[in-house]
Every structure is written in structure tokens, then in C-alpha cells.
Design brief:
The complex is a heterodimer of chains A (310) and B (502). Chain A is 80% helix and 0% strand. With 310 residues, chain A is mostly helical. Chain A has a domain of 214 residues: Orthogonal Bundle (MetI-like fold), CATH 1.10.3720.10. In chain A, helix 5 packs antiparallel against helix 10, helix 7 packs across helix 8 and helix 10 runs parallel beside helix 11. Chain A is globular, with a radius of gyration of 24 Å. Chain B is α+β, with helices and mostly antiparallel strands. Among the domains of chain B are: 141 residues, Dipeptide-binding Protein, Domain 1 (Dipeptide-binding Protein, domain 1), CATH 3.90.76.10; 210 residues, Dipeptide-binding Protein, Domain 3 (Dipeptide-binding Protein, domain 3). In chain B, the strands form 5 sheets. Chain B has a 7-stranded mixed beta sheet with strand order 8-9-10-1-11-19-12. In chain B, strands 14-18-13-17-15-16 form a 6-stranded mixed beta sheet. In chain B, strands 4-5-7-6 form a 4-stranded antiparallel beta sheet, with helices on one face. Chain B is globular, with a radius of gyration of 25 Å. Chain B starts with a helix and ends with a strand. Classes of the chains: A mainly alpha (310), B alpha+beta (502). Chains A and B meet through helix 2, helix 3, helix 5, helix 7 and helix 10 of A and helix 1, helix 7 and helix 13 of B.
């Protein structure tokens, strides 16, 4: 098992090289000159050219990329073009807010979504099922920024329950977390429902009921245990998606996280900052995937057995 | 399962527990963007300077009448065409406890010129090699060439401020996050992307700040800034959106400040190519456009229809310029005269901003009436600037903001023919008479003679139809009714140190 985890971690290296190359390539394909963005509209062409040379922007693309990788391997992922401070520091300052937001959201999505899905499955075609799945459909279809604005209008302006922006107090975190969790909640509840539906039709569930097992035990142990693999998979994927969705949610609620950092960096062509932010999201995404794969082994003895046999 | 569950709950509670900020004697200002850096030589953008301006001061300033007035310099004197003598105020303390002396002034200007590429457009004329320190409180600062706007440049809200030599050297690479100035507020902390916190500087040389704490919050979403104001989360909200204006105006707890911005939005035309090189075609375009419709629809009635290239709040603005009213028949006649009876096809570039796209769409419809078939290309800001640099534009939408309050700044860069290839003159416009007057305007000192030059220039440029003059925006600021003593600044760098609450 440990060997497997270790191997997976080693495999992360090529993934990072892939991500960084792709992002680097995209940035260089995008029109817009970082030197011009730094110096602003009023700069003389002479100064722009001087700065380009100073920043090494006139070198061929591969030379620049190689320089970046060489420094990155030594642990230096560069300095922001705009703020001049180290990208690692800026990213690590923005990181807690995003992680809090994502964790808070996935918690809501799991603890509301999974039970909702299970109940809908047990009471298939009931009124509750229809309402829940109806809401799930709306939840998936609704753009996050729009939902965020609606929630602000209702809960901040009309009711005055929560502040409209910021991310310092628990009260400020509730609306962004609810907003961000909604699409995930919807997907998780739908997957939970379909996965449960598949399982509760199995023979062993009938057997469990036949031997007089309490209904709650039948659902919790026999059914949920077997329905869990697809649910865990989707939760893992959603967590990655949350980091992405955070980009929009953070802008709406003025959360000082990776998302806000990235949006600003892209607008100002702050290449090192964009790379740093995307690499960070890439790392978290890969690690969450790894965690999900490891979780499989704990949930399903059959998978665990695979790791143990050589 | 139970264990994991409770662990999870603990984890979430621990992670989300934060600390609230004391509300007491705090003024909270909601801005549209976070500061980029608090090093005045590295970040001349409004989000940075509006914070720095509370903490840092320049030798001279521009007073309410638009005249140069002393600030850190007790008095100043123009010795000859190039040399300016400043007598510094005694006993001015930096936030680190050091006293401000002539050495700091020399150090700051030298640093500004040598490292401040981003503020080069302001400080490029300071002759730092020949700065003479006479004693600790007297210094002579020369300009490289005679320049009537030299003192205005030294009053600049970030390029002109004086830094502490000791503090800058101690901070090393971290000047941008450890600002030290002489202003009424001093720096406390900065949470990137979120807030900058300042507190009153008790050793300030002048009148002390009235409110002990000053917080700048970055809220990028415009509507959200307005909501924070409505719900009391912010005391002052800057850069409100036109769509939110009525909500603030109708709210009895809030007040609204509307002031014309020192900027002009225009339809740029590349005059280096047919058919836009023909003045009759440009005049026809001007006459086909109804800029009042643009103000009403694209800007929801906020702002004014522009009449010329100089913003109305800048000195020597020609208030007698006539309103530009649409006249489609005359425009058609001009097109026919120019040999474009059946019109032509062209492109209009604009940035990806809602009001710009709306403006472009209105122009497209209006130009169709005189047979010009416009295709709109919307671009992201960075890409837009890059494309403009190639000078392949035909029509383009842009606004020019006079961040230095002088008509020279409003006109020189965008109309002088020396700026055709690499500068801001993106319409590749050139008129020898305009060039000559622009050069003269730089040298003549303020007064009736200089005024005449700029009045003439405005007429010339309007007659040439070098731009389509569209819209003068408004600065929209909302604040709680109980906020007193807000000092408005046309450049957007408002001052908060006189603010108190009723």
C-alpha cells in the first residue's frame, strides 16, 4: 500500500511538468505584453523594451521555459511581475482562504447531498424525491456567480443576516460556502441516488431484509457500503472542481484566495503568478485524487486485496 | 465512521474560525481593486496610490484652486529656467521616527528616476545628478529641460512623495509591503487581496487624523461594493456602477457624490489609412454618432456627452465648444463628397467591458445609417493594448484619463506626431500646427498666453475630427450620511484624514 502511495507521488512530477509546460505555452500564445502591463499605457517604447530584456521576455519560448523549470527544481518559482514579491509567499498567503472555502463547501455538499440522495433513492418517485431531484437539476444548471448575487440580494440586502463580502469571520464564510457547494451538492445527491438505486435492487439487500435486519442497518451497512465507491469518486472530482469554482465565487464575495489571485494575475499578464496559482491547484487536485484512490482500498476489500497481491 | 465524522467537524470548525475586526473608531473604504504595491515608485495605479496617499506626502501639492501649494516644503522658489529651490519644513517625522531632511529628498528622487520605470512619465525630467543639498533643510532640484509643469510633476501623488532613506534601505526588497512615509496615517498590515489596515500616526507634523483606524477593502464586484455600503459593511464605497446610482441616491442613509472624471472616452480613428485619412469621412462619422444616446443607454445617464479632447475638469477646458449634434443628412453629403456614396466596410475594436461593448453596438447602428458597415471586435484589455501597438486598428474605443491635471497631459501624448509610432497617439494623427502649439504649451508658464494656446488646440483638434468625442464619465462615490470631512480629489486619490463620524 505504502509503496503504491509513494509511486503515485513520484508520478506527480511528470504531471507537474505537463501542467507547467501547458500553462507556459498558453500564456505565451496569449496576446498582451507583461512589460507593457507593468509599465502601463503611458510608458515609452524604449522603457518597455528595456524591461522586456531585463525580464528575459525576448528569449525564445523554450529557453524561458527551461529557465523556469531549472529554478522551480531549486524551489524558486519566481517573483510576481507586478508586486515584486515571491510567488510562493503570495500563493501561500492566499491558500488558506481557498482551502477553507473548498473544505467548508465540500462538507456542506457531502453532509446534505449524500443523505438527500439516499432518501430519494429509498423513497423513489415520492414527492420528496421529485422535489430534491428538481432542485438538484436547478443547482447544476445555475451559474455560481448568479446564485451568489441572488443569495447576497436576499440574505444581505433583504434580511441583513450575513455580510456581503469578506472572509474573516464564520458569518462571512457561510454565503460563499453555500454558493460554491450548490453545484457539487446537486451532483453528489444525484450520484448518491442512482448509486443507491442500483444497490438496493440487489439480491443481498433482499436477503438482509429477509433475515430480519433493521431497515436502518440494511441501508447504512449493506446498501451504502456498496454504493460508496461512485460517491467517493464524485466527491473527489467535485473537490477539484470546487477549487476551480472558487475562482468565480471568490470574485463575487471578495474572498482573498487563490481564485482572486489568479484572476488578477491573468489580467495583468503576471506569468509567474499564473503559473504558481495553476500549479498549486494542480498539486491539490492530484493529491485529492490520490487520497480518493487510497480511500477506495479502505471502502472496498476487493481493491485492497489487489494492492497486497504482488 | 463516527470518528471520521467528528474529526471532520473539528477540522472544519478549526479552519473556519477567524477573528473579527474591531468596528469602533474605524473608517472602512471599499475599493474596486487591491493595491498592487505600496512602493510609490512601483505602483502608480489608483488602487495603490489611494492607499499610499494617506501615508505619504510630496514637497508641494495642488490646492483646491488648482494652484501649486507648499506641503513638506515650507516654501519654494523658481531660481531660473531650470532650478527650483525648496525650504523643507522642520521637525517632520517619518513613521519610523526619523526626521525628514534634504538627504531623504535627494535619495527619493534619485531612486524614483533610477528604479521607477512605471513612473518614468512623471519623473523623467528631474535632473537627479545635479540636485544640490544646501543644508539639511534646503535643497535645489533642477529639471533637465525647461518645463512649466515641473512643479505639478513633483506634486504627483506617488512619483513625488518623499520616502525615508533609512527605511527604504532597511526594507530592501520589501519596500512594497513596508511603506514608511510622513503622512497622517501609518501602515499596520496588509492582507493581500482583502484589506490594507492603517492607523493614526501620532507624531504627524500637521493636524492629526480624526479617525484612529482606516481600512481599505478590495471588493472587485461592483454591485457587491454597493451592497456593502447599503448594509453598513463599508462607510465609503468608491467606483460605484451606473446601474447602482439610483439605489444609493434613493437610500436615506446614504449620500452620493457625482463628479465629472478627468477623462474622455473617444472613438479613435486611424488616420494613416484610407478612408479614415479623409477629413470629410471623419467629420461624417462624427456627425452620424449621437453621443447623447451613448450617455443615456450605455452609461445609464451617468456622465456627459463629450465636446472636445480635454476633460471639463482640467484647466483651460474650452467651455464654449458647441455640443456635437447628429446630422445624418450632412454626414451623407460629406460621404458622397469624399467619394464613399455607398459607404465602406470597417472594423471597430473595443475592450471586454459592458459599457464599451454597448457603446460599440450603438455606434455600429448609427454608422449604418451613412452606409458604413462596422464589424465589432471585442478584446480582453491586455490583448487590446497589444493589438493597438501594432497600429493595425481602424476604429477603436478608448478613454484617456488625465492623471496629471494639466491640458498638456490631456493632449500631448495622444495628438503629437512624435508619438505616432510608439506612443499613445494610436490614431497616428499628425498636424504640424497642432505639434507646434503643443510644443509651445509645454514651455509657456501658466497664464492667459498658455490658456490661448490650449483653447486654440481644442478647436483645431475638434475641427480635424481626430477623434469621435463620446463620453465624459463621472466618479461615483457613495458614503454613509454620518461621514464628515471626506476630501474629494479629482485624480481619485481622496483624503480620509479629516473624516469623522456624526
Amino acid at each position: 500500500m505504502w509503496r503504491y502511495i509513494l509511486r503515485r507521488i513520484v508520478y506527480l512530477a511528470p504531471v507537474f511538468i505537463g501542467i507547467s509546460f501547458f500553462v507556459f505555452f498558453m500564456l505565451h500564445m496569449t496576446p498582451g505584453d507583461p512589460a507593457k502591463m507593468i509599465l502601463g499605457d503611458t510608458a515609452t517604447e524604449e522603457n518597455v523594451q528595456l524591461l522586456r530584456a531585463e525580464m528575459g521576455l525576448n528569449d525564445p519560448f523554450l529557453v524561458q521555459y527551461w529557465r523556469y523549470i531549472k529554478n522551480a527544481v531549486r524551489g524558486d518559482i519566481g517573483k510576481s511581475y507586478i508586486t515584486k514579491s515571491s510567488v510562493a509567499r503570495e500563493v501561500s498567503q492566499a491558500f488558506p482562504a481557498t482551502v477553507k472555502l473548498a473544505l467548508f463547501s465540500i462538507t456542506i455538499a457531502i453532509f446534505v447531498g449524500v443523505p438527500l440522495g439516499i432518501i430519494s433513492a429509498i423513497r423513489q418517485y415520492s414527492l420528496l424525491d421529485n422535489i430534491a431531484m428538481g432542485f438538484a437539476l436547478i443547482g447544476i444548471s445555475m451559474p455560481v456567480f448568479w446564485l451568489g448575487l441572488l443569495l447576497i440580494l436576499f440574505f444581505c440586502v433583504k434580511l441583513g443576516w450575513f455580510p456581503a463580502s469578506g472572509f474573516d469571520t464564520l458569518k462571512q464564510m457561510i454565503l460563499p460556502a453555500v454558493t460554491l457547494s450548490t453545484p457539487s451538492l446537486a451532483i453528489i445527491s444525484r450520484i448518491s441516488r442512482s448509486s443507491m438505486l442500483e444497490v438496493i435492487r440487489q439480491d443481498y439487500i433482499r436477503t438482509a431484509r429477509a433475515k430480519g435486519q433493521a431497515e436502518l442497518r440494511v441501508i447504512w451497512d449493506h446498501a451504502l457500503g456498496n454504493a460508496l465507491i461512485p460517491i467517493v469518486t464524485i466527491v473527489g472530482l467535485q473537490f477539484g472542481g470546487l477549487l476551480e469554482g472558487a475562482v468565480v465565487t471568490e470574485a463575487v464575495f471578495a474572498v482573498p484566495g487563490i481564485g482572486s489571485l489568479l484572476v488578477e494575475a491573468i489580467k495583468t499578464r503576471d506569468y509567474p503568478m499564473v503559473l504558481g496559482g495553476v500549479l498549486f491547484i494542480g498539486i491539490v487536485f492530484s493529491l485529492v485524487n490520490l487520497a480518493v484512490d487510497v480511500l477506495y482500498a479502505y471502502i472496498d476489500p476487493r481493491i485492497k486485496a489487489q494492492y497486497q497481491s504482488p | 465512521m463516527k470518528k471520521t465524522l467528528s474529526l471532520w467537524v473539528i477540522l472544519v470548525v478549526v479552519l473556519t474560525a477567524g477573528c473579527a475586526f474591531a468596528q469602533g473608531d474605524t473608517l472602512t473604504v471599499a475599493m474596486a481593486a487591491d493595491s498592487k504595491s505600496l512602493d510609490p515608485h512601483a505602483a502608480p495605479d489608483l488602487a495603490s496610490t489611494s492607499v499610499m496617499t494617506q501615508m505619504m506626502e510630496s514637497l508641494v501639492t495642488i490646492d483646491a484652486k488648482g494652484e501649486i501649494a507648499p506641503l513638506l516644503a515650507e516654501s519654494f522658489e523658481k531660481l531660473d529656467e531650470l532650478n527650483y529651490k525648496f525650504v523643507l519644513r522642520k521637525g517632520v517625522k517619518f513613521h519610523n521616527g526619523e526626521e525628514m531632511k534634504a538627504g531623504d529628498v535627494k535619495f527619493t528622487f534619485t531612486r524614483a528616476v533610477n528604479t521607477g520605470k512605471v513612473i518614468d512619465y512623471v519623473v523623467r525630467n528631474i535632473d537627479v545628478d545635479n540636485i544640490k543639498i544646501i543644508d539639511d533643510y534646503t535643497i535645489v532640484v533642477p529639471s533637465k529641460t525647461p518645463d512649466s509643469s515641473f512643479l505639478a510633476c513633483l506634486s504627483h501623488y506617488c512619483a513625488g512623495v518623499i520616502l525615508s532613506e533609512k527605511a527604504v534601505n532597511e526594507a530592501g526588497e520589501n519596500v512594497g509591503t513596508q511603506p514608511v512615509g510622513t503622512g497622517p496615517y501609518k501602515f499596520v498590515n496588509w492582507q493581500k487581496g482583502n484589506r490594507v489596515v492603517l492607523e493614526r500616526f501620532d507624531d504627524y507634523w500637521g493636524e492629526k487624523a480624526k479617525t484612529p483606524n482606516l481600512v481599505f477593502r478590495a471588493i472587485t464586484e461592483g454591485t457587491n461594493r454597493c451592497i456593502e455600503l447599503e448594509t453598513g459593511g463599508a462607510d465609503v464605497a468608491l467606483s460605484l456602477l451606473p446601474i447602482d446610482v439610483n439605489r444609493v441616491a434613493e437610500n436615506s442613509k446614504l449620500s452620493l457624490i457625482r463628479v465629472p472624471a478627468p477623462s474622455v472616452m473617444y472613438l479613435g480613428m486611424n488616420v494613416s489609412e484610407e478612408p479614415l485619412s479623409d477629413i470629410r469621412v471623419r467629420q461624417a462619422i462624427s456627425l452620424a454618432i449621437d453621443n447623447r444616446a451613448i450617455v443615456k443607454i450605455a452609461f445609464k445617464g451617468v456622465g456627459l456627452a463629450a465636446r472636445g479632447p480635454v476633460p471639463p475638469t482640467i484647466k483651460y477646458y474650452d467651455a464654449s465648444l458647441p455640443e456635437i449634434l447628429p446630422d445624418v443628412d450632412k454626414a451623407k453629403a460629406l460621404m458622397e463628397e469624399a467619394g464613399y456614396k455607398d459607404g465602406f466596410k470597417t472594423e471597430l475594436w473595443c475592450r471586454d467591458d459592458k459599457s464599451y461593448i454597448d457603446t460599440a453596438t450603438i455606434i455600429q447602428a448609427q454608422l449604418k445609417k451613412i452606409g458604413i458597415d462596422v464589424s465589432i471586435q471585442v478584446m480582453e484589455w491586455g490583448a487590446f493594448l497589444e493589438k493597438l501597438k501594432q497600429r493595425e486598428q481602424k476604429l477603436y474605443l478608448q478613454a484617456w484619463n488625465s492623471v496629471i491635471a494639466d491640458p498638456d497631459y490631456s493632449l500631448f501624448g495622444v495628438f503629437h506626431s512624435s508619438q505616432k509610432l510608439t506612443g499613445l497617439n494610436r490614431g497616428v494623427y499628425g498636424n504640424p500646427e497642432v505639434d507646434k502649439l503643443l510644443d509651445e504649451g509645454k514651455l509657456v508658464t501658466d497664464g492667459p498666453e498658455r490658456e490661448a494656446i490650449y483653447l486654440k488646440l481644442q478647436r483645431l483638434i475638434v475641427d480635424d475630427a481626430a477623434w469621435g468625442f463620446l463620453h465624459v464619465n463621472e466618479l461615483l462615490i457613495g458614503m454613509q450620511k454620518n461621514v464628515r470631512g471626506f476630501i474629494f480629489d479629482p485624480s481619485g486619490n481622496h483624503k480620509y484624514y479629516q473624516v469623522s463620524f456624526d
